[in-house]
């Protein structure tokens, strides 16, 4: 089925990847090859690919270590009939993190799931990133499409300065600019007033969270440096205040 002309498939897929905090992970049983599905918490890498923190005691982790091929279903948890909401099935390989990569995945995961601090250092837990090979998006009649990774992942090759400064920016926004966070949420994204906090920044936008609610604030232009990020956030705060 071909999508309708007004359908921004890439934007919706990126938003679901950024906003989702839980998903259904499908792995393969090593002996039989049968599919096995389990519920997992997820976060997103700076490029948008999913991050998992899973225990080696879990069957899905044992499956992944034997065969890294996985699929992950994410949905927007729409009220009413869940089939009326958008969802994606992402296929790829789950890769266990090591070295410096572990620090990056740990930081971004804990920003999204601070309660994981209680067990993140247990010896049986490890971080995995799913390297996508493709994505199937379903968002209603006439809105079904397959996307290749370049259509939904965020380019970060030119954003080393931004990514180095990201955690400092996240902490600064959460400690000193909660008013601005609430303005972004309510004035720019139409959300209710809440204790919104920043969970991540990347060249394409900022991720926000209040309890179980999540938002994606897309930037009107790419930002690739700490200075460009600061200017963008000041600009968007001004636009939010101008809305009264």
UniProtKB/TrEMBL annotation:
> Which Pfam families does the record match to this protein?
CREG_beta-barrel, DUF2470
Tell me which InterPro entries the record gives.
CREG_beta-barrel (IPR055343), DUF2470 (IPR019595), Haem_oxidase_HugZ-like_sf (IPR037119), Split_barrel_FMN-bd (IPR012349)
- CREG-like beta-barrel domain: from which residue to which, for each copy? 8-152
Give any Gene Ontology cellular component: cytoplasm
Domain of life from the UniProt record: Bacteria
Q: Where is the DUF2470 domain?
A: 166-236
Spell out the PANTHER family in the cross-references.
Answer: CELLULAR REPRESSOR OF E1A-STIMULATED GENES, ISOFORM A (PTHR13343:SF17), CREG1 PROTEIN (PTHR13343)
- Listed name of the protein: Pyridoxamine 5'-phosphate oxidase
* Species assigned in the record: Bradyrhizobium valentinum
């Amino acid at each position: 089925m071909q999508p309708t002309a007004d359908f921004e498939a890439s934007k919706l897929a990126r938003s679901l990847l950024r906003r989702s905090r839980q998903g259904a992970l499908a792995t393969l049983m090593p002996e039989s090859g049968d599919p096995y599905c389990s519920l997992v918490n997820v976060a997103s890498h700076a490029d948008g690919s999913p991050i998992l923190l899973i225990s080696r005691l879990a069957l899905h982790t044992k499956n992944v270590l034997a065969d890294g091929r996985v699929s992950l279903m994410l949905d927007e948890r729409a009220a009413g009939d869940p089939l009326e909401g958008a969802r994606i099935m992402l296929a790829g390989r789950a890769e266990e993190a090591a070295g410096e990569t572990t620090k990056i995945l740990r930081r971004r995961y804990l920003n999204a799931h601070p309660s994981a601090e209680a067990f993140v250092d247990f010896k049986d837990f490890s971080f995995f990133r799913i390297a996508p090979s493709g994505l199937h998006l379903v968002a209603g009649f006439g809105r079904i499409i397959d996307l290749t990774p370049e259509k939904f992942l965020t380019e970060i090759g030119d954003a080393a300065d931004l990514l180095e400064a990201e955690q400092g920016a996240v902490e600064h926004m959460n400690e000193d600019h909660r008013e601005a966070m609430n303005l972004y949420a309510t004035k720019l994204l139409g959300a209710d007033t809440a204790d919104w906090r920043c969970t991540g920044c990347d060249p394409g936008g900022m991720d926000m969270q209040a309890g179980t609610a999540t938002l994606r604030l897309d930037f009107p232009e790419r930002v690739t440096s700490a200075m460009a990020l600061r200017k963008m956030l000041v600009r968007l705060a001004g636009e939010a205040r101008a809305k009264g």
